[in-house]
Amino acid sequence: MGKYDLKESSKPCVRIYRPDEVASEWKSGVVGWLIRYRGIGTSGFLTLSTMGVPFWWPEVWGRDAQINVIWCVSLTFLLVFASVTLGLIYLRGRIFRSLETKAILHKLAECVRDDSRAVLREKNLSADQAIRQHVANFADLIRDLFRQLARNSTVEVAVRVAYPITSNQFQYRTVARTSGLNSKRSETSVPLDPREGVAATLLQRRGKCVVFIDDLEEAIRQGFFRKTPNEEEYRSEISTLMIAGLNAHRPNSERNEMIGILYIVSRDNRPFSVYLMDSIAFSADMLALSVSLLVEQLSKGGRE
Q: What separation in angstroms does the CA of 262 have from each of 5, 89, 115, 204?
């Protein structure tokens, strides 16, 4: 597994995964063990070995205990009916969630295609305002997507984008937050230095990984996550996070660079599942592509 801890801790709080590591994650946990060949074989052996009169049959019942056929048939029908009903209820919810997810994915594609053009048509927006508005619209869709995928209504999204300071130095500044995060965060937000915290971790891996923080307070205590005034003032808003780099080409550059950072956050204490890694990587790539194309248009003066 791709676990990482800055310091020894009895409660691991940070997991870092590369795309090639997730392929084997289906084997983890109780369910993962049961659906492996050894789990299937063990389950079959236990089933066969306990057929007939099992070893746990109470002696007080005797070997010739009478069974009420009517009750047995009724109980069997009741169990089958309950199983089918619960299965249909689960299937109904699964279908609705799948349709909602597909609809949001379609909206993401439309946002890449249409929203940047709509932003460029607004003459009264500066380049910075255009980027912020476009990213904010994209962030709302990503929030809706992960609320469906994670089945968690407390999911929110924040995005940082790289801003140049000098010709060879830059900072990551927050350009968008979804509505569930306090709007006053912008007043105390501070830039993120690429040499520290999560940004450094992502850049060391060229942005090709996803960071899962299962306990923000513990990650701050260990020094992995930089504590800012927002973490102090609004500590109840965020408990767990998923973080991915936005990788794209800068204008007039052939090199792939990390132009920003995507944060999927929740106040829920339940850690995000590693099975969401492909979804956040996809969302980050879509957002990075869209921002890169918009910046390229703005740099060319491509307003309509």
A: 21, 34, 19, 16
Q: Can you give the residue ranges of every domain in the chain?
A: 89-299
User: What's the rounded Cα separation, in Å, for the pair 211 and 206?
Assistant: 13
CA–CA dist 116, 278 (Å, integer): 25
Q: Which residues pair with 263 in a beta bridge?
A: 158, 243
The tokens for 13 are: 């709080």
Cα Rg, the chain, nearest whole Å: 26
Q: Kindly list the averaged pLDDT for each block of 10 residues, start to end, along the chain of length 304.
A: 40 77 63 76 76 59 70 91 94 91 91 83 82 92 94 94 85 92 90 87 86 89 85 88 88 76 93 88 92 82 58
Are 249 and 292 in contact by the 8 Å Cβ rule? The answer is yes
Q: Which of 295, 207, 297, 300 is nearest to 257 (CA)?
A: 207
**Angstrom distance (rounded) from CA 152 to CA 231:** 21
- The C-alpha atoms of residue 16 and residue 18 are separated, in whole angstroms, by 7
Burial state string for 42-78 with b = 16 or more CB within 10 A and e = fewer than 16: eeeeeeeeeeeeeeeeeeeeeeeeeeeeeeeeeeeee
CATH fold of 89-299, please? Answer: Beta-Lactamase (3.30.450)
